[in-house]
Amino acid sequence: VVSCKATNNGNQNPTPSSRKTNETTYYYSPTATKIIDFKPPPFSKLRYRRPAHLVDADYLAEFAKAVNLMKDLPPDDPRSFMQQANVHCAYRNGAYDQVGFPDQDLQIHFSSLFLPFHRMYLYFYERILGKLIGDPDFVMPFWNWDAPAGMTMPAIYVNPQSPLYHDKHNVSHQPPKLVDLEYNGTGKEITDEELVLRNLKVMHRQMVSGAKTASLFHGKVYRAGDKPSPGPGSIEAGCHTAIHMWVGDPREEYEEDIGNFYSSGRDMLFYAHHGNVDRLWSIWDKVQGTMGEHMDDINYLNAAFYFYDENANLVRVKVSDCLDTKTLGYDYEPVEIPWLRTKP
Ligand code: C2O
């Protein structure tokens, strides 16, 4: 079981790739001593997350209000904006060791912990925002970058007057520029129409033809004592990382904020991006329908993460608690999935 110890060693190990981080100030350090085992709260109807490019003005006003309230929480409140951003910092390269294995870093990326960890990170983030505005049915939007209508940065995140706005973005990728789901630092000299088609082919490969098993889609199982990064799944390594790099600010030394692990949680667009990643997992379940080998692996099912919930309680969540969004009370509004029909 991979777990997380409640102090940080503050080291700055390099990431598994050649990209380095320069994290200095902010760490997420759980100080609570009481840990509650997660139980999904009862709900009467499913909440549906909607595409960010389709939300209406009333919803946007609520969302903005919630984010402002989160930004106004005292900095030492575990639900505050920076503390929440630092949850991402804590679970990546080198912030923590694994429990019982002081020479092995804890890193939830590049492994089958990637999808469950981010699912629950967003879940609690959304619950906190909902609590702040007194709406337990509040949902965050998702960035629908896998469909042509969503292939630009959503307008609600690029208005400098909005609390959703973030100033560290690649300015040459502002709307109407289309995302490149294979972006690795350099743009392509192709038309928008060609880019859309390539993006759809990327999606088909990473969701269908090249993602037929749980290891291919979710990544390899990461066991206590293992070296970090046993191997990422198809969308983690592919479209997901491409978007991080495409949005990150090339004027910053390490493509902050969303272009780097330690800082990406400071950009609200991160949560819309990961909403889509999470949605793609739920689509994969329907398309491929098998967690196969992972469901027999107790190391995977019992792996646990720690989060603060909407009441600032420290909660332990196991991978087995979060395999179906519907047990967590939410789902995704069904929208067109054009890449299902696009053959590579
Ligand atoms: Cu934790 Cu998109 O990275």
UniProtKB/TrEMBL annotation:
Name of the protein described by the UniProt record: Polyphenol oxidase I, chloroplastic-like
UniProt similarity note: Belongs to the tyrosinase family.
Record text on cofactor binding: Binds 2 copper ions per subunit.
Metal-binding among keywords: yes
One biological process term in Gene Ontology: pigment biosynthetic process
Binding site for Cu cation B: 240, 244, 274
Organism: Herrania umbratica
Binding site for Cu cation A: 88, 109, 118
The keyword Oxidoreductase is annotated on this UniProt entry: yes
UniProtKB keywords: Copper, Disulfide bond, Metal-binding, Oxidoreductase, Thioether bond
Domain (Tyrosinase copper-binding): residue spans on this chain: 109-126
GO terms for MF: catechol oxidase activity; metal ion binding
Domain of life: Eukaryota
